[in-house]
Every structure is written in C-alpha cells, then in structure tokens.
C-alpha cells in the first residue's frame, strides 16, 4: 500500500475549480518534488491534503496508507502523521514558541493514547531538537512567528516537523525568501528526517532547494494536475527551460 495515493482529485474554492484530476502516488521512503508555474494549484493541493477549511473536493479520493482522508478533520490527519509546512506560516501573538511546541507535542501524544510528557521532559525534548538543527534557543522564548524573518519562520516550522516526526511531510515553498543559511537549516532538517518509513512532498518553484533536498521523483504541475513526471534531472531541465511550455499546454 502506498503511503499517499491521490486519485483523480478535483477540488474547488469559492466555486472556482483549481485541481482538475490530479494523480500522485508517494511510497514510504520517497521524496517527491512538485514544481510548476505560479497559480498551478500547488498550494491548493497541500491545503486539500491537510484538510484546510474552504476547499471542496468534488471528485476523486486521497488515501493515506489505504484509508481515505477526505472525511477526516485536519487534527485527525495530523494525528495520523500528516504534517504541512505552510508557504505563509501563521503568527500566534502571546504564545511563546516553546509553549506552542510543548503543547503540540503533548496534544499529539494524547490523541495517540500516550502519556503527556512532564514539563522538564517536554522542554528537554524541544531543546534537543532545536540543538540538533542549530536553532538559537532565544527563538524558543519569542511568540510563535511574530516578527520572525522569513528564514526564522521556516526554521521554526522545520523544528516543529522534526519534533512531531510525521509520516507524510508536505512542504509548500519552504524555500521562498530564504537566505542560504536558512535554506541549509531547512534542508538539513528534512534530510535528517528522511527514512524508509517516511515520505515527503516538497513543493517548490525553484530548483535551488532541490540541490539540498535531492528528490527521488520530480513532477510538473500545471492547471491543477500533474503534466509530467521524471527523475531529479527534470528539475535541472526546468531551471533551464522555465515553465512557459507548461503554461501554454495548460491554456
Ligand atoms: P500555486 O501555489 O501553484 O501558486 P495556488 O494553489 O496558490 O497556486 O492557486 C491556484 C489558483 O487558485 C490561482 O489561480 C489562485 O488565484 C486561485 N486561488 C487560490 N486561492 C483562492 C481563493 N481563496 N479564492 C479564489 N481563487 C483562489
Ligand atoms: Mg504561488
Ligand atoms: Mg503556492
């Protein structure tokens, strides 16, 4: 059974059709990149997979380990191991990053029927993960994402992902606006998490991230579906040729 199977997925928002028969199979251990022009529906795909409100699936199915996710709330999907790193992470004023991460960790343990970690244990675990990723401990004291630079937001998100050890990691343009140091933190975080038990869908407009997170399979998305699939060399080809040919095909 594949980790993720997206079958003929059609989805719309506010009555506007965005996904038009998308198929995708991700097996455990694989890293897939999804590339494509702006407006292709890449973020929409990640939101539909995560179960975000407002997106209506009109046809098709999404299976996680053979089980349909479409009727599941976002929290249930998260509990089953789906993690979405947003293109635009949310700010949470008044909640320290450490507090947020401890709460996320314990919420996950609770839904899995595992005992909550004591404060010292939870703090130690968060600090461990932050340390492994070379993240400044000062960040843990600041309110979640408030006043963070683009790079700091992505670091914080990578830290959350590493802490929660998801089965399926969806990264939506995690590289946008990153300087080279932040890009390394994010890609090292992802590469550390690569395992035979885990799958990744890395959405990116640019080839640059894929020098650091080397994908097994690269897809081109245009007008709401996958229009081409290849190996990692496809990303280099796209870097050279651009997306114009795919935009024309879509039109
Ligand atoms: P990508 O991430 O590939 O750039 P998106 O998934 O963000 O693409 O957007 C795909 C299309 O859906 C775009 O044409 C965009 O304008 C449209 N779209 C996205 N969100 C909404 C919305 N809330 N209402 C109407 N149209 C939307
Ligand atoms: Mg976009
Ligand atoms: Mg997007």
Automatic annotation (TrEMBL):
Coiled coil: none annotated. Residues 4-248 form the ABC transporter domain. It holds the Pfam family ABC_tran. One of its GO terms (molecular function) is ATP hydrolysis activity. InterPro entries: AAA+_ATPase (IPR003593), ABC_transporter-like_ATP-bd (IPR003439), FeS-cluster_ATPase_SufC (IPR010230), P-loop_NTPase (IPR027417). Keywords: ATP-binding, Nucleotide-binding. The keyword Transmembrane does not apply. The keyword ATP-binding applies. PANTHER family: ABC TRANSPORTER I FAMILY MEMBER 6, CHLOROPLASTIC. Belongs to the ABC transporter superfamily. Ycf16 family. This is Fe-S cluster assembly ATPase SufC. It comes from Methyloceanibacter methanicus.
């Amino acid at each position: 059974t594949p980790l993720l199977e997206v079958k003929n997925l059609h989805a719309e928002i506010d009555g506007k059709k965005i996904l038009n028969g998308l198929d995708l199979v991700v097996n455990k251990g694989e890293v897939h990149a999804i590339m494509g022009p702006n407006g292709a529906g890449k973020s929409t795909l990640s939101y539909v997979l995560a179960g975000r409100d407002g997106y209506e699936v009109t046809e098709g199915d999404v299976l996680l380990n053979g089980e349909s996710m479409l009727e599941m709330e976002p929290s249930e999907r998260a509990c089953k191991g789906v993690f979405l790193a947003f293109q635009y992470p949310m700010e949470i004023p008044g909640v320290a990053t450490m507090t947020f991460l401890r709460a996320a960790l314990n919420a996950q343990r609770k839904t899995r029927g595992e005992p909550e970690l004591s404060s010292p244990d939870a703090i130690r675990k968060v600090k461990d993960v932050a340390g492994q990723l070379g993240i400044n401990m000062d960040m843990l004291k600041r309110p979640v994402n408030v006043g963070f630079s683009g790079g700091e937001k992505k670091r914080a998100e990578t830290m959350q992902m590493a802490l929660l050890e998801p089965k399926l990691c969806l990264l939506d343009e995690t590289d946008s606006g990153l300087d080279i140091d932040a890009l390394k933190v994010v890609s090292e975080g992802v590469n550390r998490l690569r395992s035979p038990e885990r799958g990744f869908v890395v959405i990116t407009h640019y080839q640059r991230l894929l020098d650091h997170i080397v994908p097994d399979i690269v897809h081109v998305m245009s007008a709401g579906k996958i229009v081409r699939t290849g190996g990692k060399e496809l990303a280099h080809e796209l870097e050279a040729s651009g997306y114009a040919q795919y935009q024309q095909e879509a039109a």
